[in-house]
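User: Sequence in, structure out. Go.
Assistant: Echoing your sequence, followed by the structure tokens.
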Amino acid sequence: MYYKYLTSNEVECDQLFLVNDSMILFNNLKEIGQWVDDEKENLMGITTSVEVSKHLQSYFWVLDKETQVEFISYLLKNGVIEEGFDKVINIYEIGFCQYLIKSGYNLISKYRYINEGSGKYNTTIHNPKSIIEENIPLIKKKVVMKNFRPEEVKFLKSVGYNFSIDYWKIIEDNKEETLNIDYLKKI
């Protein structure tokens, strides 16, 4: 969707927020917004992953003006990818971040959990409770709903993933008091 919109429309803004629907928002983004205002780097994200190679996870990116131009150029160079989820992640999430790093751009994430050596490199999957405890108001839908792709289930079992954690309870315990999350359970 980023490709379709950004290559078809003229975008002129100081900071472009790219947010996808793979996460559930259960609190406001006030603290994240303040962090974005304070840091002002080329590419900002909520979480870093070192799965495959170091990168910012693309469910939430903030691009400055210069990086917006680079991203649109990168999109046009690589085109629409229809061969699968992993290829999209490798080219657009990991590949773009690696391209920026090699080109001297600054990338930063709000939360920098890295558990190298364990095989557990993706915080949004392996340690979402720690993100919530750091006041990150988002959690991966597939973690809460336990709807992983078959190849993910196999990998997660191999690294001892705990499928029995009740993330609805963790969200309920950490959400804004006035927020009713019952509708989220129907997603």
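User: And one key feature?
Assistant: Residues 2-186 form one domain.
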